[in-house]
């Protein structure tokens, strides 16, 4: 369909149904379906056939969206049509259901402190090769019985968002002895985020080499590359990457519950630089539990996916990076474009036909997102994964359990045991 005149033509032969994108045509069955539709609706030309397709497509989509609106109105009294995105809808639903009163960080240093501590989910291999040896695959009885086992944490972020999280009364306090912070309960009304120097004792390196504690974003210098990497990437430029490593940490921003775990498993606190104190409450839990219960009781996939989305999408709003927002200007002349290009906030431009789309940095930022919530959710998510590996799996299997790969909420492990599935019972 490359002109308006095409709408007056009859149904073309099969060879005209060719996709230049896929470089393929259609089958005889597919063409016969087109003929059947044409005859069923007594189409006189391609315009009428085109309209039938659009009506069926748009009407079906409208039915789905109206069902979505109806459910959102019923459970949250919010109309999705008033929101640009699902995260925006879920964030408003969260605040409405919990009636939470969250303080914004009014001190620039506090906000940067939190932003510097935000670290996403850890992903990467710990071992390059493993091979299972058990009765379910090619089994050599002369060798130890091993399994490659995949485990996934159900609703990891949902669990973390149900914990005690910072809400208000943020203040810098004088650092105390480390023992004081090690005694603070998970459900204490007061919580702490600390900036510390950590020592990773060498005697822990072998024990922790597959799943090091306290991941951090570090710049990988050329000197730390392997000989093969140096050979294949001679022009390598260092860049920051979230890594699990066995190096000491300096000015590491950490939630007190994670710090308690790290110290319990052998890391040493060399110095406490700063401490941010706050009041904490499980303020997101009612909303998370509500969606979880509704998802469990859902009668169809649409409802299940909706309530899953309402929990998953809300997390991103807790750590939305306002600094990455841009201002977009559209102008119709080169002279106007040059005015923006010459400004300090200019990022880039795209020339399209007879106008220019210009990306500018925002001149003013309103830091109105509770980044401390996103920071804490990410920290506690890592804590749960570490606790499961080091407090559940390692005590049971010891050296017979080795991590192969992890991606945020999942672990792929090599486990030496007669029957790993019997162990799960």
Automatic annotation (TrEMBL):
It comes from the Eukaryota. It is an enzyme of class 2 (transferase). It catalyses: DNA(n) + a 2'-deoxyribonucleoside 5'-triphosphate = DNA(n+1) + diphosphate. GO terms for biological process: DNA replication. It comes from Actinia tenebrosa. This is DNA-directed DNA polymerase. Its EC number is 2.7.7.7. Belongs to the DNA polymerase type-B family. One of its GO terms (molecular function) is DNA binding. Residues 30-388 form the DNA-directed DNA polymerase family B mitochondria/virus domain. Keywords: DNA replication, DNA-binding, DNA-directed DNA polymerase, Nucleotidyltransferase, Transferase. The lineage of its organism: Eukaryota, Metazoa, Cnidaria, Anthozoa, Hexacorallia. Pfam families: DNA_pol_B_2 (PF03175).
């Amino acid at each position: 369909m490359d002109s308006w005149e095409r709408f007056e033509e009859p149904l073309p032969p099969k060879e005209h149904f060719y996709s230049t994108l896929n470089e393929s045509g259609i089958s005889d069955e597919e063409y016969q379906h087109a003929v059947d539709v044409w005859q069923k609706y007594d189409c006189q030309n391609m315009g009428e056939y085109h309209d039938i397709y659009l009506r069926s497509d748009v009407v079906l989509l409208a039915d789905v969206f109206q069902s979505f609106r109806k459910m959102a109105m019923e459970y949250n009294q919010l109309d999705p049509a008033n929101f640009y995105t699902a995260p925006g809808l879920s964030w408003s639903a969260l605040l409405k259901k919990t009636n939470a009163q969250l303080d914004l960080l009014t001190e620039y240093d506090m906000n940067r402190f939190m932003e510097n501590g935000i670290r996403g989910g850890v992903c990467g291999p710990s071992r390059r090769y493993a091979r299972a040896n058990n009765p379910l695959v090619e089994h050599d009885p002369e060798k130890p019985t091993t399994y490659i086992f995949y485990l996934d944490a159900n609703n990891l972020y949902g669990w973390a968002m149900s914990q005690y999280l910072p809400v208000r009364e943020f203040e810098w306090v004088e650092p105390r002895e480390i023992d004081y912070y090690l005694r603070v309960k998970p459900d204490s009304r007061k919580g702490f985020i600390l900036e510390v120097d950590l020592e990773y004792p060498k005697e822990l390196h072998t024990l922790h080499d597959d799943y090091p504690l306290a991941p951090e974003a570090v710049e990988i210098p050329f000197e730390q590359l392997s000989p093969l990497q140096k050979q294949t990437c001679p022009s390598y430029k260092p860049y920051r990457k979230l890594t699990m490593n066995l190096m000491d940490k300096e000015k590491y921003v950490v939630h007190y519950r994670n710090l308690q775990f790290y110290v319990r498993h052998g890391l040493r606190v060399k110095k406490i630089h700063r401490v941010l104190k706050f009041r904490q409450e499980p303020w997101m839990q009612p909303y998370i539990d509500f969606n979880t219960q509704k998802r469990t009781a859902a009668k169809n996939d649409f409802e299940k996916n909706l309530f899953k989305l309402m929990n998953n999408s809300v997390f991103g709003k807790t750590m939305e990076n306002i600094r990455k927002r841009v201002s977009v200007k559209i102008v119709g002349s080169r002279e106007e474009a040059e005015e923006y290009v010459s400004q300090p906030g200019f990022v880039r431009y795209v020339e399209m036909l007879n106008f220019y789309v210009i990306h500018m940095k925002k001149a003013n930022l309103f830091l109105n997102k509770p980044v401390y919530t996103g920071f804490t959710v990410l920290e506690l998510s890592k804590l749960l994964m570490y606790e499961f590996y080091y407090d559940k799996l390692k005590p049971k299997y010891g050296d017979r359990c080795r991590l192969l790969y992890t991606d945020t909420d999942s672990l792929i492990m090599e486990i030496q045991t007669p029957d790993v599935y019997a162990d799960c019972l």
